[in-house]
Amino acid sequence: MSVVDRARAEGRNKLYEHEAFELLRKYAIPVPDYGIAKDEDEAVSLAERIGYPVAVKVISRQIVHKTDVGGVVLGVTNRDELIAACKKIRESVKARAPYAEIEGCLIQRMVPQGVELIIGAVYDDIFGHVLAFGLGGILTELYRDVSMRLVPIEEEDAWEMLREVKAYRLLTGYRGTPPRDLHAIVDIIVKFSRLLSENPAIREADLNPVIALEEGKGAYVVDARFLLGID
Protein backbone atom coordinates (compact mmCIF):
# COMPACT_ATOMS: atom_id res chain seq x y z
CA MET A 1 0.00 0.00 0.00
CA SER A 2 1.36 3.42 -0.95
CA VAL A 3 1.78 6.17 1.63
CA VAL A 4 -1.10 8.06 -0.02
CA ASP A 5 -3.44 5.06 0.17
CA ARG A 6 -2.37 4.34 3.75
CA ALA A 7 -3.06 7.91 4.87
CA ARG A 8 -6.49 7.92 3.24
CA ALA A 9 -7.32 4.52 4.74
CA GLU A 10 -6.53 6.00 8.16
CA GLY A 11 -8.82 8.96 7.46
CA ARG A 12 -5.97 11.47 7.20
CA ASN A 13 -6.04 14.31 4.69
CA LYS A 14 -2.30 14.98 4.84
CA LEU A 15 0.95 13.07 4.79
CA TYR A 16 3.45 13.17 7.60
CA GLU A 17 6.67 14.77 6.43
CA HIS A 18 8.55 11.48 6.49
CA GLU A 19 5.77 9.98 4.35
CA ALA A 20 6.14 12.91 1.95
CA PHE A 21 9.87 12.20 1.69
CA GLU A 22 9.16 8.51 1.12
CA LEU A 23 6.82 9.42 -1.74
CA LEU A 24 9.38 11.79 -3.26
CA ARG A 25 12.11 9.16 -3.09
CA LYS A 26 9.84 6.70 -4.89
CA TYR A 27 10.04 9.07 -7.87
CA ALA A 28 13.81 9.62 -7.47
CA ILE A 29 13.35 13.20 -6.28
CA PRO A 30 16.35 14.06 -4.07
CA VAL A 31 15.74 14.61 -0.35
CA PRO A 32 18.35 14.83 2.43
CA ASP A 33 19.02 11.72 4.51
CA TYR A 34 16.53 11.43 7.36
CA GLY A 35 15.09 9.12 9.98
CA ILE A 36 12.40 8.97 12.65
CA ALA A 37 13.29 9.03 16.34
CA LYS A 38 10.90 8.18 19.16
CA ASP A 39 13.24 9.45 21.88
CA GLU A 40 16.60 11.15 22.45
CA ASP A 41 18.61 7.92 22.26
CA GLU A 42 17.19 7.08 18.84
CA ALA A 43 17.77 10.68 17.74
CA VAL A 44 21.46 10.48 18.68
CA SER A 45 21.89 7.15 16.88
CA LEU A 46 20.24 8.54 13.75
CA ALA A 47 22.30 11.73 13.76
CA GLU A 48 25.52 9.77 14.11
CA ARG A 49 24.52 7.62 11.13
CA ILE A 50 23.28 10.52 8.99
CA GLY A 51 26.04 12.92 9.98
CA TYR A 52 25.92 16.34 11.61
CA PRO A 53 24.69 19.03 11.20
CA VAL A 54 21.04 17.99 11.33
CA ALA A 55 17.59 19.53 11.57
CA VAL A 56 15.09 18.30 14.16
CA LYS A 57 11.36 18.50 13.41
CA VAL A 58 8.38 17.42 15.48
CA ILE A 59 6.10 14.68 14.16
CA SER A 60 2.46 15.17 15.09
CA ARG A 61 -0.77 14.44 13.26
CA GLN A 62 -2.36 17.59 14.69
CA ILE A 63 0.38 20.05 13.67
CA VAL A 64 0.47 21.50 10.15
CA HIS A 65 2.88 24.43 10.57
CA LYS A 66 5.69 23.13 12.78
CA THR A 67 7.58 26.41 13.09
CA ASP A 68 4.51 28.17 14.53
CA VAL A 69 4.64 25.95 17.62
CA GLY A 70 8.43 25.81 18.01
CA GLY A 71 8.59 22.38 16.44
CA VAL A 72 11.77 22.89 14.40
CA VAL A 73 15.41 23.34 15.39
CA LEU A 74 18.02 23.77 12.65
CA GLY A 75 21.79 23.48 12.52
CA VAL A 76 22.29 20.99 15.37
CA THR A 77 25.99 20.11 15.36
CA ASN A 78 26.58 17.60 18.17
CA ARG A 79 25.04 15.16 20.65
CA ASP A 80 24.46 17.65 23.46
CA GLU A 81 22.79 20.15 21.13
CA LEU A 82 20.61 17.37 19.74
CA ILE A 83 19.37 16.25 23.15
CA ALA A 84 18.67 19.88 24.07
CA ALA A 85 16.83 20.42 20.76
CA CYS A 86 14.56 17.42 21.33
CA LYS A 87 13.74 18.67 24.83
CA LYS A 88 13.13 22.22 23.59
CA ILE A 89 10.75 21.02 20.87
CA ARG A 90 8.82 18.80 23.27
CA GLU A 91 8.38 21.60 25.82
CA SER A 92 7.51 24.23 23.21
CA VAL A 93 4.90 22.09 21.47
CA LYS A 94 3.27 21.14 24.78
CA ALA A 95 3.06 24.82 25.71
CA ARG A 96 1.83 26.17 22.34
CA ALA A 97 -0.20 23.19 21.13
CA PRO A 98 -1.29 21.20 24.20
CA TYR A 99 -3.85 19.34 22.08
CA ALA A 100 -1.14 17.81 19.86
CA GLU A 101 0.14 14.28 20.32
CA ILE A 102 3.91 14.17 19.80
CA GLU A 103 4.78 10.96 17.95
CA GLY A 104 8.50 11.58 17.68
CA CYS A 105 10.97 13.73 15.77
CA LEU A 106 12.28 13.73 12.23
CA ILE A 107 16.08 13.91 12.16
CA GLN A 108 17.24 15.31 8.81
CA ARG A 109 20.66 16.07 7.38
CA MET A 110 21.18 19.79 6.76
CA VAL A 111 21.74 20.86 3.16
CA PRO A 112 24.40 23.47 2.29
CA GLN A 113 23.17 27.01 1.69
CA GLY A 114 21.74 27.66 -1.77
CA VAL A 115 18.93 29.42 -3.61
CA GLU A 116 15.53 28.58 -2.11
CA LEU A 117 12.82 27.64 -4.61
CA ILE A 118 9.23 26.43 -4.41
CA ILE A 119 7.60 23.80 -6.59
CA GLY A 120 3.94 23.42 -5.74
CA ALA A 121 0.64 22.21 -7.12
CA VAL A 122 -3.11 22.42 -6.65
CA TYR A 123 -5.81 20.20 -8.10
CA ASP A 124 -8.58 21.74 -10.20
CA ASP A 125 -11.73 19.68 -10.82
CA ILE A 126 -11.78 20.72 -14.49
CA PHE A 127 -8.11 20.98 -15.48
CA GLY A 128 -6.46 18.57 -13.06
CA HIS A 129 -3.17 19.43 -11.37
CA VAL A 130 -1.67 22.88 -11.95
CA LEU A 131 2.05 23.05 -11.13
CA ALA A 132 3.82 26.25 -10.07
CA PHE A 133 7.51 27.15 -9.85
CA GLY A 134 9.21 30.19 -8.33
CA LEU A 135 11.36 31.59 -5.54
CA GLY A 136 10.81 29.74 -2.28
CA GLY A 137 11.24 30.26 1.44
CA ILE A 138 10.06 33.60 2.81
CA LEU A 139 10.36 35.17 -0.66
CA THR A 140 7.41 33.21 -2.10
CA GLU A 141 4.68 35.53 -0.82
CA LEU A 142 6.85 38.65 -1.05
CA TYR A 143 7.61 38.54 -4.78
CA ARG A 144 4.89 36.20 -6.13
CA ASP A 145 7.23 35.45 -9.01
CA VAL A 146 5.87 32.16 -10.33
CA SER A 147 5.37 30.27 -13.56
CA MET A 148 2.53 27.76 -13.96
CA ARG A 149 1.69 24.83 -16.22
CA LEU A 150 -0.90 22.09 -16.41
CA VAL A 151 0.35 18.59 -15.63
CA PRO A 152 1.83 16.56 -17.31
CA ILE A 153 4.99 18.57 -17.87
CA GLU A 154 7.80 17.54 -20.18
CA GLU A 155 11.43 18.63 -19.99
CA GLU A 156 10.97 21.42 -22.55
CA ASP A 157 8.04 22.81 -20.52
CA ALA A 158 10.14 22.77 -17.35
CA TRP A 159 12.93 24.75 -19.02
CA GLU A 160 10.37 27.32 -20.17
CA MET A 161 9.09 27.65 -16.60
CA LEU A 162 12.58 28.41 -15.34
CA ARG A 163 13.15 31.07 -17.99
CA GLU A 164 9.79 32.76 -17.34
CA VAL A 165 10.46 33.76 -13.73
CA LYS A 166 12.41 36.89 -12.89
CA ALA A 167 14.53 34.79 -10.53
CA TYR A 168 16.07 33.06 -13.57
CA ARG A 169 18.86 35.66 -13.54
CA LEU A 170 19.65 34.65 -9.97
CA LEU A 171 19.78 30.98 -10.97
CA THR A 172 22.17 31.59 -13.85
CA GLY A 173 24.61 33.63 -11.77
CA TYR A 174 23.98 37.25 -10.77
CA ARG A 175 26.58 39.82 -9.73
CA GLY A 176 29.25 37.29 -8.99
CA THR A 177 27.06 34.61 -7.45
CA PRO A 178 27.65 31.12 -8.87
CA PRO A 179 25.09 29.64 -11.28
CA ARG A 180 22.79 26.98 -9.87
CA ASP A 181 22.22 23.42 -11.05
CA LEU A 182 19.46 24.12 -13.57
CA HIS A 183 19.38 20.56 -14.89
CA ALA A 184 18.70 19.27 -11.37
CA ILE A 185 15.81 21.74 -10.96
CA VAL A 186 14.28 20.73 -14.29
CA ASP A 187 14.63 17.07 -13.34
CA ILE A 188 12.69 17.64 -10.10
CA ILE A 189 9.90 19.51 -11.92
CA VAL A 190 9.46 16.72 -14.48
CA LYS A 191 9.52 13.95 -11.86
CA PHE A 192 7.13 15.89 -9.61
CA SER A 193 4.75 16.21 -12.55
CA ARG A 194 4.79 12.44 -12.97
CA LEU A 195 4.19 11.97 -9.24
CA LEU A 196 1.10 14.17 -9.45
CA SER A 197 -0.21 12.43 -12.57
CA GLU A 198 0.01 9.04 -10.88
CA ASN A 199 -1.51 10.24 -7.58
CA PRO A 200 -4.77 12.07 -8.36
CA ALA A 201 -5.78 11.95 -4.68
CA ILE A 202 -3.24 14.73 -4.00
CA ARG A 203 -5.15 18.01 -3.83
CA GLU A 204 -2.34 20.35 -2.77
CA ALA A 205 1.42 19.98 -2.59
CA ASP A 206 4.28 22.27 -1.64
CA LEU A 207 7.96 21.46 -1.98
CA ASN A 208 9.30 24.48 -0.13
CA PRO A 209 12.08 25.09 0.02
CA VAL A 210 13.85 23.26 -2.73
CA ILE A 211 17.52 24.15 -2.25
CA ALA A 212 19.33 24.68 -5.56
CA LEU A 213 23.06 24.18 -5.09
CA GLU A 214 25.86 25.30 -7.37
CA GLU A 215 26.06 23.91 -10.89
CA GLY A 216 26.81 20.19 -10.84
CA LYS A 217 25.95 19.75 -7.14
CA GLY A 218 22.22 19.08 -7.47
CA ALA A 219 19.07 20.31 -5.77
CA TYR A 220 17.22 18.93 -2.74
CA VAL A 221 13.69 19.09 -1.38
CA VAL A 222 14.11 20.14 2.26
CA ASP A 223 10.45 20.45 3.27
CA ALA A 224 7.36 18.91 1.70
CA ARG A 225 3.63 19.10 2.36
CA PHE A 226 0.91 17.01 0.71
CA LEU A 227 -2.84 17.44 1.29
CA LEU A 228 -5.17 14.68 0.13
CA GLY A 229 -8.77 14.39 -0.96
CA ILE A 230 -10.88 12.12 1.22
CA ASP A 231 -13.70 10.24 -0.50
Total domains = 2
- What is the number of E strands? 10
CATH class label of the largest domain? Alpha Beta
CATH superfamily of the largest domain: ATP-grasp fold, B domain
Radius of gyration from the CA trace?
Answer: 18 Å
CATH architecture of the largest domain: 2-Layer Sandwich
Specify the number of helices: 8
Query: In which range does the helix fraction lie?
Result: 25-40%
- Give the DSSP E fraction (strand runs of 2 or more residues): 25-35%
The chain-level structural class is alpha+beta
Contiguous uncertain segments of 5+ residues: none
Shape: globular
Distance between the terminal alpha carbons, to the nearest Å?
A: 17 Å
CATH topology term of the largest domain: D-amino Acid Aminotransferase, Chain A, domain 1
Order of helices and strands: HHEHEEHEEEHEHHHEEE
Give your account of this protein's structure.
- This protein is of the alpha+beta class.
- It folds into two domains: 33-109, ATP-grasp fold, A domain (Dna Ligase, domain 1); 115-228, ATP-grasp fold, B domain (D-amino Acid Aminotransferase, Chain A, domain 1), CATH 3.30.470.20.
- 35% of the residues lie in helices and 27% in strands.
- It contains eight helices and ten strands.
- The chain has helices at residues 3-9, 17-26, 40-50, 79-96, 139-143, 155-164, 168-171, 182-197, and strands at residues 34-37, 54-59, 72-76, 104-109, 115-124, 128-135, 146-150, 202-212, 219-221, 224-228.
- Strands 5, 6, 7, 8, 9 and 10 form a six-stranded antiparallel sheet that branches. Strands 1-4-2-3 form a four-stranded antiparallel sheet, covered by helices on one side.
- A hairpin with a 3-residue loop joins strand 5 (115-124) and strand 6.
- Helix 6 packs across helix 8 (182-197).
- The protein starts with a helix and ends with a strand.
- Residues 21-57 form the ATP-grasp domain.
- This is ATP-grasp domain protein.
